[in-house]
Amino acid sequence: MMLKKVKSYAIASVLLTATPLAFAESPVAGLSSNAAAELLFQLETLQQEVQSLRGQLEEQGHELKLMKQSQRDRYIDLDKRISLIMSSASKATVVSSPVVPLAEQPASVNRAAPSSSPSVLRSSPLAPVSLEAPSVESKKAYDDAYDLIRQRNFEQAEKALSLFVENFPKDTLTGNGYYWLGEVKLVQNKREEAIVAFTTVIERFPGHNKEPDSLYKLGTVNDQLADTAKAKSYLQDVIRRFPDSKAAQLAAGYLSNIK
């Protein structure tokens, strides 16, 4: 609808450029001076409206460009994380919750160490849980969900990870599942749901190896939601509690750009 108006107004603006000269050089047949002045006023008003609409279109185009860039940056960030995890999979380990120390995990579990947050989280108390070693069934469910992330099938990965954390709430891989579910939600621009997922990692799985990354993500997402105070709090917490982590380095760089 707006484009149709712009086209109509554009045609009128062309007429406007010629009309004043016509009025100035020769009288308009059948029009009094008052009628001609009124017509000129209407055309000038129409031109102003065209200019206003043009400005709105340019502003919307700029906002759309920024949104596409933000989406692309999040996708690239997730892609880099996946690549890094795949390259260091043989060395990755799953860190247990301090509530119940975890036994050393098999190689297949270590490969799956990075994980995500839940798609639609149920209202459950966010308290530390006692963890259990992964079963054959839970490992397969997690690996299948993670393979969907590697395939960039984020919508299906979200569903699979949501089912995983729901069906295996006390598994040693569940903290990883919540973290990666948060990442998948960010790629799909579901910031509020991502915050719930990252918060779950921190509150239900304290001491987990994805806790620094979850804190960093909470800082960046809150900044995107214009909650600068909360964003700074999370980023400063990463630096204070995990000064030697990669997340702390990222947090320091991000903090320097927050106004």
Automatic annotation (TrEMBL):
InterPro entries: CpoB, CpoB_C, TPR-like_helical_dom_sf, TPR_rpt, YbgF_tri
Tree of life domain: Bacteria
Coiled coil: 36-63
Subcellular localization, as worded in the UniProt entry: Periplasm
GO biological process annotation, one example: protein trimerization
Gene3D superfamilies reported in the protein's UniProt record: 1.20.5.110, Tetratricopeptide repeat domain
Name of the molecule in the record: Cell division coordinator CpoB
Species: Marinomonas hwangdonensis
Lineage: Bacteria, Pseudomonadati, Pseudomonadota, Gammaproteobacteria, Oceanospirillales
